[in-house]
Amino acid sequence: MKPLHGKVALVAGATRGAGRGIAVELGAAGATVYVTGRTTRQQRSEYNRPETIEETAERVSAAGGQGIAVQVDHLQPEQVQALISRIEKEQGRLDILVNDVWGAENLADWNVPVWDHSLERGFRMLRLGIDSHIITSHFALQLLIKNKNGLVIEMTDGTAEYNDKNYRLSLFYDLVKNSVIRMARSLAHELAPYQCTAVAMTPGWMRSEIMLDHFGVKEENWRDATEKEPHFIISESPHYVGRAVAALAGDPEVARWNGHSVSSGELAKVYGFTDLDGSQPDCWRYLVEVQEAGKPADASGYR
To answer: pTM of whole model > 0.85?
Structure first.
């Protein structure tokens, strides 16, 4: 019933959104989960959001795992190094690394060409979305490769197939999200001799706390948002991608995904998990076949 019992995970960037959903679902599968971020009950990050790492850790424990909150700025190498040293001292191993640090929703100027885009905000986006992942991997993978069957999840937005064909509304955003996909492929090459696996993972249109606030709804009444944006009918909760990560982590043949770019909807078809409402939204297929094709919003056959 607890396929990840005895496993140790680090979800870097677990304060809210996908990171929180992943941490909770890893906990539900029995894992010990270190949840990191900058916002605690005593201090907020530049986001100035109310969600905290302590709250995430408590949800992990309530789900059946062990949640451990550690405040870390993943752009500070010494803080990441101290984190990994702590995990090694307390657990002696690291089985799952989820690189989910992002924190740049407020930095992108959408559909603004690079010559008009703020360089300061653009380069901050690159630092948050790329450098933080590299710094974390540099220290964490030294511990992860000490045991076979380790798993690294690089969280991004969009599959490789979709992103190869589409401009993601900002040069900086496009660069970050595609770099993370490529990062997973590079890590797959470097981890293979140690029988460990790296995968790039994307949710679909995710109902993060920020997205729900944008539409003025809660998870309980999220469908009300379709009055403003009908295509929101294909959206998914953060638990959906969390269950995708947990499914990979519990798969003894996970190496078949090494270097691949996958989505929550794609993996739901393979592993059979569902979202909180029992559905299996397939956002990226819907996006191409319905929304971008100019068809009326209708998730029939897509969830």
So the answer is: yes
